[in-house]
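Sequence in, structure out. Go.
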Amino acid sequence: QVQLVESGGGLVQAGGSLELSCAASGRTFNSGAMGWFRQNPGKEREFVAAITWSSGTTYYHDSVKGRFTVSRDKAKNTVSLQMNSLKPGDTAVYYCAAVTSIYKGNFFSTQIYEYWGQGTQVTVSS
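Output:
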């Protein structure tokens, strides 16, 4: 059974930094990709960043480019999201997600992801 467990969320002041981690268990991800999404109450879950397991190719939403960095550790089966220069607008529950093949579609879409973590709250105060 595949499990994704996020950690690292919390409360931070605007301009600060947080690093989220997502630990995957139940299978080894040698292919496919991992994505980070975020969601606020009453709003749709939105894409933040993604990284492919094999090549490490990264993708970012325009709103986080230059501030967030996604990385993966294949040996540890973990993915991280380093978030710098945080803004109040970054406040949300952050989810990691896994898709087992890079050919399943658009990494920006929640539809292609097969596994999801439980989410971790990030709150940025002004």
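Check: The mean pLDDT is 95. The radius of gyration is 14 Å.
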